[in-house]
Amino acid sequence: MMAAIAASDFENDVIIYERNDRVGRKILATGNGRCNMTNINAGIGNYYGGHPEFIKCAIDKFWVRKTMDFFSELGILCREEEGGKIYPYSGQASAVLDVLRMRLDKAGVKIKTKYEVKNISKNKNGFTLSFYNGETARADKVIIATGGRAAPNLGSTGAGYEILRRFGHTITDLSPSLVQIKTDDDIVKKLKGIKLQARVMLGEYSERGETLFTEYGLSGPPIFSLSAKLAGQKEIALDMMPEYSTEQLTALIYERITSNPECALENFFVGMLNKRVGQSLLKSIGVEPLSRSADTLSHKEITRIAETIKNWRFNVRGTMSWNNAQVTKGGADTSEFDPETMESKLVKGLYAVGELLDIDGDCGGYNLQWAWSSGYIAGMSMRQ
Ligand SMILES: Cc1cc2nc3c(=O)[nH]c(=O)nc-3n(C[C@H](O)[C@H](O)[C@H](O)COP(=O)(O)OP(=O)(O)OC[C@H]3O[C@@H](n4cnc5c(N)ncnc54)[C@H](O)[C@@H]3O)c2cc1C
Predict the structure, then answer these.
(1) Fewer Cβ atoms within 10 A, N terminus or C terminus of the chain?
(2) Same structural domain, 167 and 46
């Protein structure tokens, strides 16, 4: 949509072909229905892929401020939230889609829904698009903006990769990102539904925030963010009391024993940690039975408890599937595209933008920013 707006403005005959029965369905699902449109802190360090420096031109040409100005002109009042996340003030993702659709209309862009592109070929007269409904269309230039493979129920089934492959483009390995992480521990399953404010650690990375135990592993904003850095990691760890050091925690446990020596271990954490989490933690390190009284804890056990609260480790067993992912890691190799225009270096007049390219961002508005920027740049350069 952004590419079409930039390409059009009545100067060109621009048509969007969309496989769904409406455009922009994914936007409605973003930011839990609130659309985290961008992030004021967005910089090259928030992006991954074979060549993240590919986005430098986009940062120069059309980045956060210009995106916010663009939406502001369309009537979107923005609200900044924790971590620089930008949302429409109305709290409605539908507002973002509404203004884009109105702008498309104003620019004279034609929208053809239920047109699923099967293939695109090029000959001396330009491009021919063929659709699953049997129809064909001709175009002088084409921007492929089919998204990646994440959330295929919203339309992005990965079709763009095949089309680009047929043109000779390289597609790097694809994997789900910004997604829940699977662990192989029974403990996590038993704690499903419990939320904690934790610091989550994955190798050299850590993120703080609401973390959720689930049937299959761990979820929540810190988990989503860390899933982008999962490659090669075997363990993920929770610090369930990040404000305390291990020494402070050890002292706290001693204090609690002194003030309530006969407290059964099953109730020992009440008021300090989630009760069920505390019980599972004790079992996981073999401090049993839970009917024991607190004053039977040895110094070694107390130290172990404090260390585990600070660093509870779980084995990583991969991520949830494409259906649960917010973005695709990997994509069309950006070294085969011009970062100034998003045009293919292999096929003149062919452009690729957004998640389809081998660029993925952190959780927090960064992926939509990339979609807006790359779309805008491709559209503008197509005008020339
Ligand atoms: C649940 C969820 C929440 C998210 N929340 C956020 C957030 O708050 N902030 C953020 O920055 N990012 C968020 N993201 C990521 C962000 O939405 C995507 O990275 C972004 O939408 C990618 O834009 P795109 O235009 O490249 O592709 P998409 O938005 O996926 O759009 C691709 C379009 O192409 C259509 N299409 C696909 N194949 C064909 C075909 N063969 N023929 C015709 N049409 C086709 C699809 O139906 C779709 O409409 C979220 C993603 C999900 C799934």
Answers:
(1) C
(2) yes
- Please state, in angstroms and as integers, the Cα–Cα distance from residue 256 to each residue in 64, 73, 264, 271, 283, following that order: 50, 58, 12, 11, 19
Cα of 49 vs centre of ligand 1, distance in Å, is 18
- Give the Cα separation of 264 and 260 in Å (integer): 9
Do residues 342 and 372 both lie within one domain?
yes
Positive/negative CA dihedral, 356, 361, 363, 365:
negative
pLDDT tens-place string over residues 287-308: 999 999 999 999 999 999 999 9
- Nearest 10 degrees: Cα torsion 231, 236, 241, 242: -20
| pTM of the predicted structure, to 2 decimals | 0.91
Condensed to tens digits (0 to 9), the pLDDT of residues 351-363 reads 999 999 999 999 9
Cβ of 29 below 6 Å from ligand 1: yes
b/e sequence 359-368, b meaning 16+ C-beta within 10 Å: bbbbbbbbbb
Nearest CA to 137 out of 159, 115, 107 is that of 115
User: Is the distance from the beta carbon of residue 228 to the nearest atom of ligand 1 less than 6 Å?
Assistant: no
